Amino acid sequence: MLDEVFPIPTRALIRQGGRACFYRLVNTSPLLIQVQSGTKIVMADDRALRLEAGAYGLLPDYRPLTMENIPKAPQKYQTLALPVPRPLFEEAYIRMGSIAVPSRPVPAGTSSLPEEAEALFDYCCQPGNLTRLPGAIAKARLMELITWFALCGAVLGQCQSPRLEDRLRQMIESDTAFDWTLGHAARSFNMSEATLRRKLAAENTGFSEILSDTRMNRALGLIQTTTLPMAQVALEVGYDSPSQFAARFKERFGVNPRHVRGGSERFERIGAEVERSGADAHAR
Questions:
Q1: Do residues 26 and 64 make contact, with C-beta atoms less than 8 angstroms apart?
Q2: From 64, 167, 215, 278, which residue has the greatest number of CB atoms within 10 Å?
Q3: CA angle 138, 65, 281 (to 5 degrees)
Q4: How many Å apart are CA 113 and CA 120, to the nearest integer?
Q5: C-alpha to C-alpha distance for 52 and 37, rounded to whole angstroms
Q6: Spatial distance between the Cα atoms of 14 and 139, rounded to a whole number of angstroms
Q7: What is the secondary structure of 211-267 as a DSSP string?
């Protein structure tokens, strides 16, 4: 553990075989990323952030984002992502003192980092490096990395007032295979089902919608970062039937889950835009 609160982050290597533009993707932790191959375009508030191969970026937590990842043949699109707990950003910014923190969390990027910062990012992303360190040292390394990103212009915006939807997403994400019900959620939040339903309605959403969307976001991440068979991915997000899972995934994202890895089909825009692009393409 970094300490009693923060777990050691585990990096994810994101790959995708077909160009696509996915809508309303939500990260439950801020992400430090490096685009290693291809191009990434991230949109929020009608503002586009374009990251070419070699560029670094910072993606905010609990902010619906539109993401398009474009491969450059013959390579697949590939991005290295490191989730870092938000409190570490806030503590690092307080220690910096003079940093200007945006009032809203929006994607931010930098075309390059100093060599020392690049080496530190690589170090933190190598499996096992942080876990071998004492918690206090691992925390200091991550805060140093956050500081380098901030000095290069990638600063995480202020945390918005936490929504019930965000808390519910976090709970479901802890075990997406669990048979979650409105009753489970209500008891976890110490409220009646009617109260939970009413509070979610005030946020223009509902339990079933959040459950399904959280599972599909998790499924997309598993498809992009692992080689698990599709049947296993389906089980990991609570679907016993692979065909039912594939249908729900396509309904949400507009693409067959196998296309995300292989990029061998062409789809019309539904919840995503996809086109065949040489050999490879997209990621979360």
A1: yes
A2: 215
A3: 85
A4: 10
A5: 8
A6: 24
A7: HHHHHHHHHHHHHHH----HHHHHHHTT-S-HHHHHHHHHHHHSS-HHHHHH-----
pLDDT, one tens digit per residue, over 4-56 is: 556 788 999 999 988 888 999 988 899 999 999 999 999 998 889 999 999 99
Asked whether the CA dihedral 177, 200, 270, 33 is positive or negative, the reply is: negative
Q: Between 135-151 and 115-125, two packed helices, what is the crossing angle to 10 degrees? A: 140
Query: Which H or E element spans position 82?
Result: strand 77-83
Lowest mean pLDDT among 156-165, 181-190, 194-203, 220-229: 156-165
- Cβ atoms within 10 Å of 178's Cβ, excluding its own: 11
Structure-token pair, residue 176? 């997406």
User: Tokens 């970062």 identify what position?
Assistant: 225
Three-state DSSP class for residue 121: helix
Tell me the pLDDT tens digit for each residue of 59-85.
999 889 999 989 888 888 999 999 999
Q: Answer for the pair 26, 86: CB distance below 8 angstroms, yes or no.
A: no
Residue count of the chain, please give it: 284
